[in-house]
Amino acid sequence: MEEVSNENRILIIIVSVILFILLLPAIPFDNSIMISINGATSHPIYTILNVLFIIETSFIHYIFVAMFFILLLVVAIAKDKAPVLEEWKIILMVSLIAFAFEEPLINLLKIIIGRPRPFDQWPLVLFLNQLTSASGYSFPSGHSASGFCVIAPLLLKFENRIYKILFSLFGYLTAFARVYVGVHFPTDIIVGSLVGIGLGLLSYIVFSKFLIDKVDDKLPYIVFAVTLSIYIAVTIVNSLIH
Fold this sequence. Notes:
single chain, about 240 residues, globular
């Protein structure tokens, strides 16, 4: 596993700075920006876009994260110890470790901050077209955080700019979709994305510094079991709270 290159460091810094710059003007205009984005859903020309974003935010996001669990098992079970499989095993573990930290952290922040969803705020509800359901608090966005925390290590792995653009687009579309369907404010997704990028980068650095020499046949299963257990525990706690 290679150290984070200067080019990748610059990429992460640029993405984070752009998100932070977007955050500053979004704070005083959070409601109006959200209404403008969500308002497009009522126009007939956006019917197909509505369906696509509903599918993306309701199903594809979860399928994408589930793929990391499945691929890690497949790579771990594979008898072929080709270098490319070993590299994928490591990067998948890094992504899932970041995801394991992201789930409880985001949900803790939601409880501490306690920001209601857009459709729970009056009189904002008068202007909203809520295209999908969501429970719990709004800030920060869990979808945005989990999307970017598993994508960030992939951005560091691939040197091909096309792959980087595709993975980044998926993260941005996941975040944007949450505002579009009416379940998050712009600041929710920006902060969630920043948290996800930070955890993904931190997981990559910690793994490359302290765990890379301890990788064996058992470690992928341990990462899989621990991450899945944390996710199930957080889901149960959320269902009890909300």
